[in-house]
């Protein structure tokens, strides 16, 4: 479902160029579950943003469902993101002026879902992440882990085919974190949602069927776990 | 150095009141190192913000070095924060328009430190957290864990007597996280800096001499480790 071919990403900063990714190739097949693990600054978020069509590679190609994303204009890319990809950002990026419920409804509004259905599904998703009692809170009125759970519920709003999650449990205690990972794994096992999770948590890597190790912008190792 | 007496914090939200802390009492002695652990939403950040004089309790008292903070005006509180307390926020709150070096220099500017000394100390601190090669980057040009390390260097800028750190390693891989915690522990052991760390990481709790367990806004347990 995501095919990354020889992708590099260079951030141009005035006189200096910083190579965040250097010749990365990987293929994620439908319904796979994969973790990407590596030191701080190794390029995990950069790779996930490119796979989620949120940024363009400096060189190399990214195919989503066989479509070459370099040929698509920004409207087409936005359409793919909206309909196929659920993205959990490392820093959540919730809209500060909307409450939890409205933040989860937002992707459905863009997808043209009716008001009643949107509202019911948003409540259902907030219930799923144990946040129904906080659904009228705005982000500033939520704890760190609570904001993270809103961000996860929002990523699931449009029933995505693939969920790309950047450190989805960094702000959660181990019980809440395990609940979230179990929820994502259930979606993968029961509904075939493809799952790519960037994490620092070895527990998460240990329960994924495939772990990709990133270091200094390159893939240095890959492991497959027998299910 | 911090004495919390029967502190409660209620967030008033329109028609609903939310009690985040309910009758919390604790004493932190000079040069102690303490971890505060508990589920997401249990009131850890709220407690840390009150101890750091960033917010006022709804009821109860907080004494810093024996001074009753409820009697101080906001200028006096700011002075205590500037001179005595180093705060690492859960979401860093770096100034987006300043680069890493300038963010670390900022507290020293407020404290009236000269330009040359400020710059040298800021470079030293960024070297200490392994970020010297990124010191001209602005926050948007840094990875999650790199931003966190800038926030830690900034908290140490004015040689604080007490460091209050809210999940200082949540965005770091285990090697970088361990380096940061070892750095903070060294400051505690060699310079007597009092340390209060909110964390979800059981490893950090296991190396602190005292662990306070918070649940639903109350202290439910406390453990002391034999050094
Ligand atoms: N916009 C940018 N401009 C310049 N450099 C950047 C930019 N974004 C990231 N970088 C640099 O690229 C490198 C990779 O960043 P990235 O965010 O992908 O790392 P990461 O593996 O997600 O790290 P972490 O685990 O700390 O979140 C980092 O060293 C960072 O300094
Ligand atoms: N400004 C606010 N207005 C209303 N409610 C708030 C506000 N800030 C926090 N809360 C609520 O108070 C409770 C405690 O929040 P707090 O941020 O202290 O928790 P925490 O233990 O730090 O959680 P986490 O581990 O997720 O960061 C949460 O349930 C949250 O919804
Ligand atoms: Mg990252
Ligand atoms: Mg918190």
Topology of this protein?
2 copies of one chain form a homodimer.
Chain A: E1 2-13, E2 16-28, E3 33-37, H1 44-51, E4 59-64, E5 67-68, H2 74-84, E6 85-88, H3 100-110, H4 115-128, H5 144-155, E7 162-166, H6 174-191, E8 194-199, H7 202-207, E9 210-215, E10 218-224
Parallel strand pairs in A: 3-8, 3-9, 6-7, 7-8
Antiparallel strand pairs in A: 1-2, 1-4, 4-5, 9-10
Helix pairs in contact in A: 3-4, 3-5, 4-5
The structure holds adenosine-5'-triphosphate (ATP) (2 copies) and magnesium ion (2 copies).
Notes on the protein architecture:
2 copies of one chain form a homodimer. With 227 residues, the first copy, chain A, is an alpha/beta fold. Helices cover 35% and strands 29% of the residues of chain A. The mean pLDDT of chain A is 95. Chain A has a 6-stranded mixed beta sheet with strand order 6-7-8-3-9-10, sandwiched between helices. Chain A has a 4-stranded antiparallel beta sheet with strand order 2-1-4-5, with helices on one face. The longest helix of chain A is centred in the C-terminal third of the chain and has 18 residues, at 174-191. The A-B interface holds A 11, 13, 37-41, 44-45, 90-91, 136-137, 141, 143-146, 149, 167, 170-177, 200, 202 and B 11, 13, 18, 37-41, 44-45, 90-91, 134, 136-137, 141, 143-146, 149, 167, 170-177, 200, 202. Bound molecules: adenosine-5'-triphosphate (2 copies) and magnesium ion (2 copies). One adenosine-5'-triphosphate (ATP) sits between chains A (11, 13, 18, 20, 38, 40-46, 90) and B (134, 137, 140-146, 171).
